[in-house]
Structures are given as structure tokens and as C-alpha cells.
Predict the 3D structure of the following.
Amino acid sequence: MSLRQLLFCCLLFCCTTLNAQQLSIDSLFGIIRYEKAVDKKFDAAEEAQFQIAVFDPRTELFDTLDNLLVRLLAELKSNGDSSLVAGVLHLRGKIIAAGSDFKSAINFYNESLTLYAALKDSSGMASAYKILGTTNIRLNRFNTAINYFFKYLRIAEHMHDTDAMRSACFSIGKVYHDRELEPRKSIDYFRKYTASDTALPPINCAFLAREFLFLQIPDSAAYYLELAKPLLTSPYLFHGAFGYKALASYYQYNKQFDSASICYQKAIHRFNTAHDEFNAVSCYYRLGEMAFLEGKTRLAEKYFLDAESYALKYHYFELPRVYVGLSGVYEMLHQPSRAYSMLKNYKGVMDSLRKTEESDILLATDLRHQFILKEELLKEQQLRKEFEKIALVKQQRELKIIAVVIISLVTLFALVFLFQRLRIGKEKKRSDALLLNILPGEVAEELKDKGRADAKHFDDVTVMFSDFKNFTTISESLSPKELVAEIDTCFRAFDRIIGKYNIEKIKTIGDSYMCVGGLPVANKTHAEDIVLAALEIIRFMDDPLNTSLLKKYGGVRIGIHTGPVVAGIVGVKKFAYDIWGDTVNVASRMESGGEAGKVNISGSTYCLVKAKFNCRHRGKIQAKNKGEIDMYFVEQEL
């Protein structure tokens, strides 16, 4: 095979298999321009033949390309062109790195760097320093990586290459970001050499958003997330993955775990498709963390085990917190031996990492987990004592059979007694939880204490009604199962939202949702709380991630009114807590007189919230027994 044929096969392989990495292709085009070794031109038949030879699925593609590059290096070295040899060495390193042999790849990058340095080729040296930094990160050598990135930055500054300077600063900022040591430094480097925030690349904005969340400055994080939105539709998998990861972090910070989970899953899919398992590890960990906080212990175990599997292969530094998470899971599952095993794994990994050059990262890891470690070390001591007791019992078993049998019987009776008590307690908790799901807490306690609950008059509460526009039309186009699923998705979100604002849900009728603020315990912020919840419900329905048909074909109308009501329990069978009075009727009238996507409030509510919200008067509406009532649209919070 001639040099021209070798070059063609290498270029074709890179373009198809390695997603056309620009540096590799540029290097090959440079070599192709080396005309001394060209034997002849290709014709179409030859090109097809070589394409089939390289991309036959039954062949080892990486071995094929590596053999081609070895021959190509021999040809170039015999011609004595160091510049082209350096380019092929660089390319061979990238091919080997694609097969996850990062240590061998570094050897080729260093050979390439030596040749570029001898030739005083600044551009070549810059690319070598950059790839050496990136590859050392894959080996968890963060200190080594950042040193290479600083060398890359100095050369870029010397060449006055603004794009390269920004690239180097991004790489440095990402190392600080991954180490979670100095978020302010990370922010500085992500912004460096850019005239304004709006000129920042969206990928920089995604990382800036996560740094501001780390600093607990959510407003700044939201600002940069808005600038990072183009990443979500980017054709580059790597960029899209980091965009969804940043958005997931924001949802997780705000405890919107369902939305966060969706975004983490999308990030994982893009990372895995791009063969970037290194960055997928933390996504699995965060999914496990959220599942654990929601009490979904088995799901948390699954995600933590996925994180462990990836971390063992690709990101060893993530293992400590994964093992801490698994220890907590097994403790909740009442599996002390497995919890203890995870703690031993944690200590083993930490001891191993302490022997590496990355002592500063270990310090950060220790600081992040020191509060956990104190508790876990105490648990470890307790577990050891329990295991020592078990071992002692086993040693004495042959000599004290009768005693063991008696102890076993006593223990059995005690366990049966304890089991019965726990079962009764569990059933009581379940019935109490069911009662609290039907009635407000204060009313439920009164019902348990007295056997009944008295109706009460409340002078000043705020009632909210909502329903979905075009609901009848939408329901006719859906099966019963699909219709219920659509309503359930929205009402679950409404429940979560009003729970944040101390609002009491009263009932749902069809597609109507009714809740009230200011009872059963009176407060002075009920009107403001209801309006804030209503605006958040509107935002939920307008969220691009919300694919509900109720949003697409109608939207939600919300009406609010403030006034007196009577509240109490109705009925004996399937009893329910309800409210009555003209206030309820006027709130319903506000809803029916409103518009989809708008919060329509009455004049009495407006008087209570006008100092907190920007409202627009929209005229009057006739209400039964009330005459004409002023209506206002709430535009936004002041």
C-alpha cells in the first residue's frame, strides 16, 4: 500500500469513527500535502476498496488504523520530516486514547511535544499541552492536568491567539470546577478573555450556573442557565450533556426532583452516546442522592451501584462519596454487614488516593465528608462490637447449648412481641397518614381527641379555583386511562406547589382544583401565599419540559378571591373537609371570568397584594348576590 493509500485510510477512519476530530483531520491533511511520497492518484474503485477493507465490521478497526499509522510513521521518519512525524504521533495518541489506553496515549503525546519543541512550533506545542492536560484528567491526575493547561495558556498568550486563550481558560476553570475546591477561581477562568456575559460560549455559562449553585447564589445560576439554553438543542452530544446536567443541578437545588431526574437521564444518555462515561459518573451519583432523599431506597441503591461501576473504570475520585451513599442505603435497608463493607471500601479508596499526587483533592473530599465520617466511624465501632458479640456466642455455642437455646427462645418471644408492637404502630401511622391526607392536621387531631370536629367561621381567607381550558374537547380525544394520567400529572405538581406556601387543598371536581390559604390556622399572608402559588402553577404549565396535552391545547385558568368562609367536616361515610360562603362562589366566578395562562384576582384580594405584585385592572364582572366586582390580572411579583 502506498503512502497516499495509507493517508486516505487514516483520514477516512478518523472522519467516520472519531467524529471528525478537527486536530486529527488537520494533521492528516497536512501530511497529505507532503507530495514526495505520493505514488499515484486514487480512482473511485480503489477508494471503495480501501473503505470496505478498513470498515468491515468483522475486522478490528483500531488495530487496523494503528497498523496503518505505524507504517506511515516509518515512511515519514525515513524522509526526515519531523513536523509530519509529530502530527502522526499526536494522531496515534488520540487513536489509542479512544480505546481508553490513556497511559500509552500520553507517551505518544510526549514524543509529539518533544518534536514540536525542537521545531519551535508554538501551535503544535499548544495542541500537545492541551491534549496532555485532557488525558491526565481521565487518569484523575488533576494537578498534572492543570499544569499542562497553564502551559497551554502561556503559549496561547504568546501567540496572541484569543480562541486558544479562551479554550485554555475553559480547561483550567473545568479542573477547578471538578475539584470543587475554589469555585471563585473557576468562575474567573470561565469568564476570562470575554468582553461580556452575553458573548460567553453557552458551555461556559452551563459551568458558571453550576458554580453559582455551589456558592448558593441561585439567581446568578438562573441567569447563566438562560444563556446556556442553546446547549439543549446543540448537535454536539458533549455540549448538550453538560447543558442538561446544569439544568438538572438547578432543579435539584430547588428540590424539583422529578424534573432534575429527567435532565440527569438525558445528560447520561448523551455522555454515554459520546463515549464520555467519565462525566456520566456524577450524574448517576446525583440520581442516587435524590432517590435516597425521597425515601426510594432501592432506586437509590441501583443508581449508586451504577455510579460505582462507572467510577471503578473511569473516575476513581468519585468512589468515596459513592461508598458513603451506599453505606447510608444499606443502613436504611437494615443490612449492617453490607453498610460496614461499604465503609471499609470507602476507607480503602481514601487510603489508596492519599498515596497519589492529588493530596489537595483528598483534602477537599475529606472536608466535604467530615461530618459524615464522624457519624460513620461511630457506627463502625458499634458494628464491630456487635460482630465481636456474635463471634463470642459462636465460640461458646458447644459449651452452652442449653443457655443458647433458652436465650434463643426468649429472643424469639421478644421478637414476636416486638414485631406485633411494630405492626400495630405501623398500622397506626398508616391510618394517621391517611387521615392527614383527608383532613388538615389541626382538624384531624380534634377529631381523634373528641370524636368529632366543630365547624368554624374564618373572617378572612383567600380561595383559589383553577380549571383547564377546552377540557371537554381534550377529554373526548383521549382514552379514560390517558385522561386520568394527564390530570394526575398536573394535580400532583399543583399539590407540591401549594405545599410550599402553607396552603390547604380542599378538593378536586373533574378538572377543577380548589384550595384555600389562611385556615385552619389563621395568618396574615394568605393572599400573598395564594398568588405566589398561582404564579408558580402558571410557570409549571408554561415550562418547556411540560409536554402535557392540557397545556398544549388549552392551558390553565386561575381565579382568586378573599373573604369570610365557614369550614368543617361533611358527612359520616367518605367524610371530607369543605368550605362554604359567598367567598367560594366569587372565587369560582373569578376563575370562569379569567383567561388561560393568567391569574385573575378580585378587588378584595388586590387590596391585600397590590404592594407585592404588579397587577392590571381589566374591568368588572357580575357576581350573584354581590353586584359588580373589580377584576385584575396579576402580571408579576414586584
Q: What stands out?
A: Residues 1-6, 12-59, 357-378 have pLDDT under 50 and may be disordered. The domain at 456-637 is CATH 3.30.70.1230 (Alpha-Beta Plaits).
